[in-house]
Amino acid sequence: MLSDYLDEMGVRSGDVFVMMGLATPEGLYDVWSAEALKSGIITKVFSYSDEPGYVTGGTDDESGDVVNIPPEIELLLK
Amino acid sequence: MTTRLGLLTTFWLIVTGLLVALVATASAGAKQKTPEAWPMNFALVRNGDCKVSCVQWISAEGTITADTGRQFEQFLAKLKGQRLPVVFQSGGGDVASALWIGRMIRAAGLETAVGRTVLNGCPMLVPRCPEKIVKNGWSEGEVHAGGAYCFSACPFALAGGQVRAAAVGARIALHQITDGSKKSAYADGTQKPRRNFYEA
């Protein structure tokens, strides 16, 4: 049910299940911005202090590449 | 002697009364939920008078309950097609309800974001206080992306957005889904997680 939903929304269900599996049985797995972007949980990243609406990075609509992302996130993607 | 006994009785009555009051206060405190644990509700919020420009959004905060999906459906119906971003801050909750919300958001073509709403005039510790939420109208406030959180079932509702955004300083977190017996497919060893999912 969940994997169907995530696929329907354009989120990589396999990645999400891996991250869920990385959580301890009683705890949470913190999703890094890079992981959230790559898995499709989010498609845009705001800089820390901006309000929603001011986009600093995200995925290119045509190529699907991650573009214009903050340097600290770029490092994580390499 | 009689006076001493009377004083002693009064003393013990006062002590007992104080103890009872203390227990009652502690019990009420334990039952009182923090804002994060309140059931999710929805509010139309704007920043600015909107005569020239303003920021408008749907603030969705609190725990997702089995009834939240139905409430969101009713809320959306009142918007009459207005396409506003849905800004979530939630510790999660009912997964089925979260999926329903996500599907409604996608069907309506809305965007989503992780953000915390601060309503004007609310106390610092309850920044989205119920008394400042205007029913059937616009509440006034600000939205902050940094420091907001979306845990557990919340990212599933967030996924419904056509465009979905979060700040570098926001927290998105997932956990294993259990059947209530505290055992999961991963925890009981029937399914092993792939650690290197970047290579998938």
Describe the fold and architecture.
The complex is a heterodimer of chains A (78) and B (200). By secondary structure, chain A is α+β, with helices and mostly antiparallel strands. Chain A has one domain (2-77). Helix content of chain A is 41%, strand content 14%. The longest helix of chain A is centred in the N-terminal third of the chain and has 10 residues, at 13-22. Chain A is flat. The mean pLDDT of chain A is 81. Chain B is α/β, with parallel strands linked by helices. Chain B has two domains: 1-32; 35-173, no CATH class. In chain B, 30% of the residues lie in helices and 22% in strands. Chain B is built from four helices and nine strands, in the order H-E-E-H-E-H-E-E-E-E-H-E-E. Chain B has a seven-stranded mixed sheet. In chain B, helix 2 (68-79) links the parallel strand 2 (55-61) and strand 3 (86-89). At the A-B interface, helix 1, helix 2, strand 1, helix 3 and strand 2 of A face helix 3, strand 6, helix 4, strand 8 and strand 9 of B.
Within the largest sheet of chain A, what's the order of strands? 2-3-4
The helix content of chain B, as a percent range, equals 25-40%
- Please state how the strands of the largest beta sheet of chain B are arranged side by side: 5-6-1-2-3-4-8
Main sheet of chain B? 7 strands, mixed
Greatest contact between two chains: A-B, 46 and 54 residues
What is the H-and-E element order of chain B? HEEHEHEEEEHEE
Gyration radius of chain A, in Å = 14 Å
Please tell me how large the radius of gyration of chain B is: 23 Å
- The residue-averaged pLDDT of chain A reads 81
Uncertain segments of chain A: none
The end-to-end span of chain A amounts to 33 Å
* Number of discrete helical segments of chain A: 4
Global morphology of chain A = flat
Secondary-structure element series of chain A: HHEHEEEH
The percentage helix of chain A is 40-55%
Identify the overall geometry of chain B.
elongated
Provide the number of structural domains of chain B: 2
The number of strands of chain B is: 9
Q: Residue ranges of chain B: pLDDT <50 for 5 or more in a row? A: 182-200
Percentage beta strand of chain A: 5-15%
